[in-house]
Specification:
Layout: H1 5-8, H2 14-22, H3 28-46, E1 49-52, H4 56-69, E2 80-84, H5 112-119, E3 123-128, E4 145-146, E5 150-151, H6 168-175, E6 181-186, H7 192-197, E7 201-204, E8 224-229, H8 232-242, E9 276-278, H9 289-304, E10 308-310, H10 324-340, H11 351-360, H12 362-365, H13 371-377, H14 383-400, H15 402-409, E11 413-417, H16 424-429, E12 433-441, E13 455-462, H17 468-482
Parallel strand pairs: 2-3, 2-6, 9-10, 9-11
Antiparallel strand pairs: 1-3, 4-5, 6-8, 7-8, 7-12, 11-13, 12-13
Helix pairs in contact: 3-4, 10-13, 14-15
Length: 490
């Protein structure tokens, strides 16, 4: 390994970085300097990092002193990590969800997962750009665009390749080596989609495994934070740091099992030998020839590694329409609660005030409109209607969706292509997903939404609630059998 951090830091995994610090080859302060230099050099090309933590170097120095005097706290001690801009930090960084309305908003306290990360010894390096309001603002807002931060670009083809999902800034930053890894959030595809498009591992945990308190909300039934990293091992380490029960998030009390805090024990390279995996062919139907070939190759890898593959597997709710009324109700309730607690100097304290602020500053804030915000403000569902609609969908999805298929064929997981269509059932149920790089589409096509299918592509493993240990074992075994990821050429 070169002694020059800049030669290797952008692709180094967390254990490698931790070992380098243990051997005295570098310090956390050195890491922060190296990542900041890389951000200064390449972020103008990608627009992935929105804001740098002005205290990052001081935090790193304190963690270095702690390492030398009392030892390390764990595998993340002194490791720089980036956070999506909808996650509260009580420091000198802002939390804005990409909006100009909250551009100067500083949270009154850390989000629950931020407190967990600080306790683990993480250096919070900065905030990443994102699709404004997690893409719940305008009907035609492109993925990765925010009024505050501009357009995120994909490091594998800036301006050419799709970035996908609202955590695109976290994904682009992690892929470009701007930090060891990043934290994103997902409502439906916003971790998994960007991870797939940036040759990353992304984990969308079961809703309730990691707290949402202190995260700007979209949907109480679907929102969850999760890691984006260059390897399954790194994602597992980061997931273990953020899980835990939180009195301020009732969903975290729902787990029927004791929360696991060390997911690295599930990194089994031979797990596929005992696995049973289903192939829901409905979700393969619109793949272009290159991406279909990548998926067929992935299925071949499963079989070659000894897995039992059920192909095809049917789910009977594939075309169930998206229930915008339910999400609109949850967004209106959640965002009003969040905004109402902001300090007086912030210009908006309700969804109604946010809409008005955007109209007053339309030249800067409404490039793509705010139709979703307006629809949510006009949402007239009462609580009883909301609960009835939500229950109707969940019951159908559980009896004819993921659980149905897994039980019928005694499967560990389903394997989906790395696009958002197959993620909706899991999203609506709050079920976990994990994605692993699977190949690179050299040509691709431009789909009906105008998005390029060229570039990195991943497989997505879908399981029942609280099945993260199994999904991590499957993902790691697949990853070690393929190792297709390559760094972007910036």
């Amino acid at each position: 390994m070169s002694t020059n951090l800049n030669d290797w830091i952008h692709e180094a995994d967390i254990p490698t970085v931790q070992k380098a610090m243990t051997r005295g080859e570098c310090t956390s302060e050195d890491l922060v300097h190296a990542y900041l230099e890389r951000i200064r050099k390449y972020n103008p090309l990608l627009n992935a990092v929105l804001e740098i933590n002005p205290d990052a170097l001081e935090i790193a120095r304190k963690l270095d002193h702690e390492r030398n005097t009392t030892g390390i706290r764990g595998p993340l001690h002194g490791i720089p990590i980036l956070l999506k801009d909808n996650i509260d930090t009580h420091d000198r960084m802002h939390t804005s969800a990409g909006s100009l309305a909250l551009a100067e908003s500083i949270a009154g306290e850390d989000a629950f997962i931020v407190a967990k990360l600080r306790a683990a010894g993480v250096v919070l390096l900065g905030k990443t750009n994102m699709t404004e309001w997690s893409n719940f603002m305008g009907d035609h807002m492109p993925a990765g665009y925010s009024s505050r931060g501009g357009q995120v670009l994909n490091p594998y083809g800036p301006g050419e390749l799709f970035v996908s999902g609202s955590s695109s800034g976290s994904a682009a930053a992690a892929a470009a080596g701007f930090a060891a890894a990043a934290i994103g959030t997902e409502t439906a595809g916003s971790i998994i989609g960007p991870a797939c498009q940036h040759y990353l591992v992304g984990i969308k945990p079961t809703v309730g495994l990691a707290s949402r308190s202190g995260i700007i909300p979209i949907s109480v039934s679907q929102d969850t934070p999760g890691p984006l990293a260059k390897s399954v091992a790194d994602a597992a380490i980061l997931l273990g740091a953020i899980v835990g029960r939180d009195d301020n998030d009732k969903a975290t009390a729902a787990s029927p099992i004791r929360t696991v805090h060390d997911y690295t024990s599930y990194l089994d390279p031979d797990f596929l030998k005992q696995a049973r995996i289903g192939i829901p062919r409905y979700y393969y139907r619109q793949l272009d020839s290159e991406r279909l070939a990548i998926m067929e190759n992935a299925i071949g890898v499963l079989r070659a590694q000894g897995a039992t593959v059920m192909d095809p597997v049917d789910l009977y709710v594939e075309q169930l329409p998206w229930n915008n009324d339910v999400i609109g109700y949850e967004f209106k309730t959640g965002i009003n609660q969040y905004l109402s607690k902001l300090p007086p100097e912030v210009p908006v304290h309700s969804l109604q005030e946010l809409i008005a602020y955007n109209e007053e500053n339309a030249a800067y804030t409404l490039r793509y409109g705010q139709a979703n915000l307006i629809r949510s403000e006009q949402n007239v569902l009462n609580e009883a209607e909301y609960l009835r609609k939500r229950q109707e969908y969940n019951q159908l999805a559980m009896t004819q969706g993921i659980d149905y298929a897994l039980d019928l064929h005694q499967l560990d997981a389903l394997m989906l292509p790395g696009d958002v269509d197959g993620m909706y059932i899991a999203a609506r149920l709050g079920y976990p997903l994990i994605t692993v790089p699977a190949g690179y589409s050299e040509q691709g096509i431009v789909d009906a939404d105008g998005d390029s299918t060229q570039g990195p592509f991943g497989v997505v493993l879908s399981g029942r609630a609280w099945s993260e240990p199994t999904l991590i074992s499957l993902a790691y075994s697949f990853e070690q059998a393929t190792l297709v990821r390559r760094a972007p050429e910036l």
